[in-house]
Amino acid sequence: MDFQPTKYTLQSCKTGRVFQDEGWSLADPQENVPSLIRAIYEKKQIDIKGSDAGLYKYADWLPIKKMLKGSCPPVTYKSEKLANFLGLENLYITFSGWWPQKGAFMSTCAFKETEAYSVCARLETKRILVVASAGNTARAFSKVCSDNNIPLVISIPEDNMNAMWFKEPLNPCVKIICTPKGSDYFDAIALAAKLNGDPHFIEEGGAKNVARRDGMGTTVLSAAEVIGRIPDLYFQAIGSGTGTIAAYEANLRLIEDGRWGNHLMRVIPSQNVPFTPMYDAWKRDSKDLLPMNEEEGRNLALQIVAKVLSNRKPPYSLAGGVYDCLKASKGDVEIADNEEILQACDLFEQLEGIDIHPAAGCALATLAKSVKKGIVKKGEIIMLNVTGGGEKLFKAENDFITASANLVLNPETPAGEVIEKVLALFKA
C-alpha cells in the first residue's frame, strides 16, 4: 500500500504553543514545567481505510513515517448477553486480542500492539529503542520489533517474565534485561533510565510519546466507527492512565471532525485494590499523588492480580495528564479487588465466549458496580475497552515459547556499567 508520512504538528498541553516535531520530540523544548504534548493533525476529518491496512486504517491520526507489517486494529461489537446481564441496552465492547471469530488477530493478545505499531512506525533512527514494561507492553514491542528487524531493549521485572511468550523465537535484534525477583515495574523503569542519554539508545517515552497515546486512541476510533458516534461513557482499567488520556484526546479529535457528535464521553478508569494511587488522589480531589514510600508501593503492587496495573509514577498530575482528563470529561475513578476481577473475567468468558486478561476484568467489574450505583443509565451508549483477551484460546491453538532474559541487573547498578553490558549484547 502506498503511504505518505502523516502531516502533523505538536502542541503543549500546558501553554498551547504549537511547534514542529524534531523527529522524536517528547516535550516542548521551550518549557521547564511538566506537560504532555499532543499531536495536531493536518487532516481534521479522518479517512478510515480498509481492514487490509491493519491498525493503519486510522493512519490519518497516527504520527507515523511508515507502515509496518503484521498490525491488526481493535474490533468493536455490540454486546448482547453481557449487556442483558448488566441491564444495558447499548453496551459496545472494543476488543484487543486474539479472537479470530470476531476478526481480532492480535497475537500478543493485548492492546499494547496498538502502541507498538504506532511508536515503531514513528521511529526513524538506527539507535536502539528502550522500553520498560510490566509485561504486556514488553511482549507487544518485542513482537513488533522482532518481526520488523528494529533494535530493541526491553526492561522488565524478572517476576513478570512469564508474560514473555511468543509464537516464534525472537529476532536477535531484541534483547531483554530484567530487574531481580521481588522487584516491580518501577524498578524496571529505573533500570531502563540508565540507558537514556547514551547516544546508542533512544527512550521510547511512555505516556510522553504521542505515537503511543494515539495508537491506544484507535480503540475509541474503532468504537465510534462501529457505533456511528462518540460513546457516552468509557470504561478501562489503568496502570499508568495513558489509555485514559489517549481516549480523551481521540474524543477531542472526533468532536473537531464534526461527524461523530460534539460531546465529551465520561471516562471512568479503574484500579486494582490494594494498589490504587490514582483512585486515592482523585477521591481527595488532589492533583498530586498522595505520598507513598518505595517499599509500600512495591508491596502493594505485588498483591494485585492485574500486574500490568502497577505503575507507581503515572502521568496523573502533569498538564494534559489523567487528572486533567478526568476533570474535563466529568469522569471518575473506580476500584475492584482481586476476587471481583477474577469473577468478572469468568463472567465475560461465560457470556461473551472468550477469556480476558485481569486488567480487562477490572474494567468490567467496575462497569458492573457503576450500573448498580446508578452511575450508568440503561440506555446510554457505553464503551468497554477490553484491553487484552484470547490468550487461553491462542495458546490452545498455537505452539508458543517463553523467552529468557539476556541479563538480570539491579536497578542500582551504575549507568556506565548497565550501558556497557547492554551494548555487549548487541555486539555478541
In short:
This protein is an alpha/beta fold and 428 residues long. The chain contains 14 helices and 18 strands.
Approximately what portion of the residues adopt beta-strand conformation?
15-25%
- The class by helix and strand makeup works out as alpha/beta
User: What share of residues is helical?
Assistant: 25-40%
Number of domains: 2
The helix count comes to: 14
CATH class of the largest domain: Alpha Beta
Work out the radius of gyration: 20 Å
Account of the protein in words:
The chain has 428 residues and is of the alpha/beta class. The protein is built from 14 helices and 18 strands. The chain has two domains: 75-109 and 212-394, Rossmann fold, CATH 3.40.50.1100; 128-199 and 399-428. 34% of the residues lie in helices and 17% in strands. The radius of gyration is 20 Å and the shape is globular.
Layout of secondary structure:
Elements: E1 8-12, E2 18-19, E3 37-41, E4 75-78, H1 81-86, E5 90-95, E6 98-99, E7 104-105, H2 112-122, E8 128-132, H3 136-148, E9 152-157, E10 165-166, E11 174-179, H4 185-193, E12 201-203, H5 210-216, H6 218-227, E13 233-237, H7 242-257, E14 266-272, H8 277-283, H9 294-301, H10 322-329, E15 334-336, H11 338-352, H12 358-373, E16 381-386, H13 391-397, E17 401-402, E18 407-408, H14 415-427
Parallel strand pairs: 5-16, 8-9, 8-12, 9-11, 11-18, 13-14, 13-16, 14-15
Antiparallel strand pairs: 1-2, 1-3, 4-5, 6-7, 10-17
Helix pairs in contact: 2-3, 2-5, 5-7, 6-7, 11-12
